[in-house]
Amino acid sequence: MDQTKKIAVIGGGSWATAIVKMLCENLDTVYWYMRSDYAIEHIKRNDHNPNYLSSVEFKVDQLHLSSDINEIISLADLCIFAVPSAFVYKELENLTVSLKDKIIFSAIKGIVPETGLIVGEHFHEHYDIEFENIGVLTGPCHAEEVALERLSYLTIACADEVKAKFLAERIESDYIKCKISDDIIGTEYAAMLKNIYAIAAGIAHGLGYGDNFQSVLMSNAIREMKRFIKKVHKMKRNINDSAYLGDLLVTGYSGFSRNRLFGNMLGKGYTVRSAQMEMSMVAEGYYATKSAFKINEEKGAKTPILDAVYSILYDNKNPKKVFKKLADKLD
Amino acid sequence: MDQTKKIAVIGGGSWATAIVKMLCENLDTVYWYMRSDYAIEHIKRNDHNPNYLSSVEFKVDQLHLSSDINEIISLADLCIFAVPSAFVYKELENLTVSLKDKIIFSAIKGIVPETGLIVGEHFHEHYDIEFENIGVLTGPCHAEEVALERLSYLTIACADEVKAKFLAERIESDYIKCKISDDIIGTEYAAMLKNIYAIAAGIAHGLGYGDNFQSVLMSNAIREMKRFIKKVHKMKRNINDSAYLGDLLVTGYSGFSRNRLFGNMLGKGYTVRSAQMEMSMVAEGYYATKSAFKINEEKGAKTPILDAVYSILYDNKNPKKVFKKLADKLD
What percent of chain B has pLDDT over 90? Predict the structure, then answer.
């Protein structure tokens, strides 16, 4: 594989900013698309992203910044998508250049709401990209801790191991370790499902359940995740690997998680709409819950936690009553 | 099975106090041994244990209290031991009555330091009690949350399912759910190993590692626990059940855990001795680490986390250096 392939990051949020930082440890140039011209000008003048991880200082001569997604993608060989899943569909509508010969890595932890597909599948079905050119970059990893250069472990999944290794070598540094995986479907579903379980953890906390219950909830969640993923894509995987269990834990037990915060507000009595307005954003897990529920209507895995969260988010059910019933199903 | 069997709790600490509270929801009389005559008098006069979970109010006419262990054991058919593992050997030396026809449940999360055995094995080998009369009562469960009547899930393990069910029915209440298991060896080793991993979590925190690392550590810990327990006692078990993974999480992520606190102090630079003096107690995991390490010298499971903690506690190795090496072995 050509070792000089150029790498682009698509997105201006905290996870995109963290990925650019990681790549800057190893590359002379990182191609970086973000929507906001203001943010780009700010980075050029002040060496940091004004909106996210602003403690991270960049060397601007390492960055090729643009608010033109076509410019950035046409310059790059490997594109890492790190926009919120709710925006990926719209961002891609702006494309005039072809993605056909690109290697696409998804760092998006969720589902494309418009198609109900995980991001890899979306690229495969709608942009005709072969699975061996599709990969996933996943945690467990809070962007905030990358900013602090706290030791973190990423999993880079790709059906083509050479491409996974290529990216892993460019991401690894003193504070980042990478593991290679060939489970692009499972790791991406895990990254999406964990947001639903983080909402569940938040609801439980908001309702006044304690740490004992939380640990039982997480123990049930990982078993549920295993059942779900097995139905969607059966292959040999250890669900207790960091990309699955670790990612669940870092989100479920996190103070940073917006999904957990969203759930917490629901547990405390906010309606779905008022919680979303209060947060002035929609948590990834909100869409993930609907998509996972729909997928599972066909697949039929036993998913009491997913079902409970779905009934609260989309059937307007009372969280207290739903969790009382859920508690009887956990063990 | 005779449904009128009498139940005794041996121990005066927070976990013993929580168990007595749970039993008082269902029984007319609970037999309760504790060493301290002062505490007994205090409970009789003021309806609560002066030293532990003092918010829990007892109805004194439900309690048969005594500081004479022989009196309590001779009156009971089923004895739940809930003293710290460091004291169980000495407490048992005071016995003059026979344990031969008793059903013994261990709620002790650790190893008997004098014999290096888990408590069930200790009773089996040193008191000639058949395994079908030995059981384990395990979490995930902080006693403090039982005091608050927060929903908690216990696992009651016994080779004889009838006895496990008998106890489960007397423990269950509005806020306690019980699961039955036949894995008395595995659940007890899990309860002991989790304290070692809680020390590891504490050391990592003390050294400045963040949440990303912590989730990877726990994800590796559950895989290590599975390997260890499989070597010691091979049977079909789901390591992600609450009694194993849940118990690991509630301790590893806990602010209550004394083992985690102990580890945290080591990570911050305290010596083992000074951390123990500062805490004015020895954390269960301190003994567990030595015993587990010795057992594993024979069994040969891959246990990098256990080995790291052992080298810090017993070989006086530098936590920072040890964890730097450990980090390379995790994934």
Answer: 91
